[in-house]
Amino acid sequence: MTPSKKRAVEAEAAAGKAKVRLAGIADLHCTKTAQGSLQPWFAHVNERADVLMLCGDLTDHGLPDEARTLAKELTAAVRIPMVGVLGNHDYESGQQQEVEQILCDAGVHLLDGETFEAAGVGFAGVKGFAGGFDRRALEPWGEEIIKHFVRESIEEALKLGSALARLQMPKRVALLHYSPIRATVEGEPLEIFPFLGSSRLEEPLNRYPVSAIFHGHAHHGSPEGKTSRDTPVFNVSVRLLQQRFADQPPYRVVDLPLDPPLDSKKGQGPGDQL
Ligand SMILES: [Fe+2]
Ligand SMILES: [Fe+2]
Fold it and tell me: Could you give the CA distance from residue 202 to residue 132 in angstroms, rounded to a whole number?
């Protein structure tokens, strides 16, 4: 089936549904020897969700062997569409392109400023970067290396903005590894807040509104927060979910209500509702 035909079939299937169920997980930190240990997490994901979102730190040290193990775990269990972003750990060994290719071959649509559509929802994703929050965010001032550091956050935010601008779907979701807000890193030591995310990532999310934002990286943060424009933000780090929802598999399922069919909306266009 061609990609456009597949999208049309998915959109048609989504049109008959009242909601889309999004499952988010981050910080799997898959090691080479993890085979068999992750599969049980995903045993019922196909019945519980319509799309699985993987929000970075998929491998522990960014090694191709770790990615191969994860690919086997995912392909053995997951049959719903998979979309994701890489995290800082996936860059550790400088082999992120190979890691990406292995996961891509396993059916994971990895986003680095690209977009993806599944089940009637448009996804935009970037890894993001650090830098701190709000009025305390690091500014590009002084030494060249500080300017370079801040430029990295700005570039990730620009990449996210241009991906969001290209999404024409009425329902849009953003995936990140680093947090765009302070609220979902709360619980971590205060000293490391600036390394866990950047408010610069929130700017494009306010300019191009989305229905929900998912991220990881803050293993001991808070599961939920909101942007300054009230968009829900979910920290779906495995360690955090295991701590807070011990009786559930370590992914978070969020229901995204879909708009009613156009003919029942009396004149509203497809982009009028979020
Ligand atoms: Fe992590
Ligand atoms: Fe991380």
Answer: 12
Residue type, 56: G
CB 63 within 8 A of CB 30: no
Protein residues placing their CB within 5 Å of the ion ligand 1: 27, 57
Reported as a pLDDT band with limits 50, 70 and 90, residue 267 is very low
Residues 6+ positions from 95 with CB-CB distance below 8 Å: 62, 63, 64
Dist. CA 265 → ligand 2 center (Å): 42
Q: What is the pLDDT of residue 265?
A: 43
What is the phi/psi pair of residue 179, to 5°?
A: -80, 140
What is the spatial distance between Cα 185 and Cα 188, in angstroms, rounded to a whole number? 6
Local structure of residue 91 (DSSP, 8 states):
G
Q: What is the pTM of this model?
A: 0.90
Dihedrals φ, ψ of 227, to 5°? Answer: -75, 175
Taken in order of first residue, the domains within the chain and their CATH numbers are 3-255 (3.60.21.10)
Strand partners, 123: 116, 173
In angstroms, the CA 16 to CA 37 distance is: 36
Q: Rounded to the nearest whole angstrom, what is the distance from the C-alpha of residue 29 to the centroid of ligand 1? A: 7
Distance (Å) from CA 196 to ligand 1 centroid: 10
Q: Average pLDDT for residues 204-229, to the nearest whole number?
A: 98
Ligand 1 centroid distance, CA of 60 (Å): 8
Total number of residues shown for the chain: 274
